[in-house]
Amino acid sequence: MVVHFRGRDSSTQTFKRFRKNVLRYQNLVKHGAACFTVFHFLADELKKLGFKEDKIHVLYGGLDLDLYPFVQRSLPNEGEIRTLSVARLVEK
């Protein structure tokens, strides 16, 4: 089994959350083939939960900003302003 962690589901930030996640993931720690995180902080959190370092891989979810240079923009005097937000819209 391979699992991708992205947030609080891998956190140890409070004792209550640490205790909950240690119990939640004990079988995954023992039997999981690998796990991915989106940055090194979460990889360190998984190590605290007992995951072996050689099974943790960081797979960044961000963009290479050098490919998209900054362009100064201003608000239009008329018309609509459009924004785009991409997220996973699921109940937690």
What does this entry look like structurally?
It is elongated, with a radius of gyration of 19 Å. Helices cover 27% and strands 11% of the residues. The protein starts with a strand and ends in a 34-residue tail after the last strand. 13% of the residues are buried. The model has no long low-confidence stretch (mean pLDDT 86). The protein has helices at residues 15-24, 26-31, 40-48; strands at 2-4, 34-37, 56-58.
Helix share bin: 25-40%
Q: Cα distance, first to last residue? A: 22 Å
Residue-averaged pLDDT, rounded?
A: 86
Record field, number of beta strands: 3
User: Which structural class best describes the helix and strand composition?
Assistant: alpha/beta
Largest sheet: 3 strands, parallel
- The strands making up the biggest β-sheet line up spatially as 1-2-3
User: What is the subunit arrangement here?
Assistant: single chain
Contiguous helical run count: 3
Radius of gyration: 19 Å
Unreliable residue runs: none
- H/E series: EHHEHE
Please tell me what the overall shape is: elongated
Top keywords for this entry?
3 helices; 3-stranded parallel beta sheet; 92 residues; alpha/beta
How is the topology of this model organized?
Layout: E1 2-4, H1 15-24, H2 26-31, E2 34-37, H3 40-48, E3 56-58
Parallel strand pairs: 1-2, 2-3
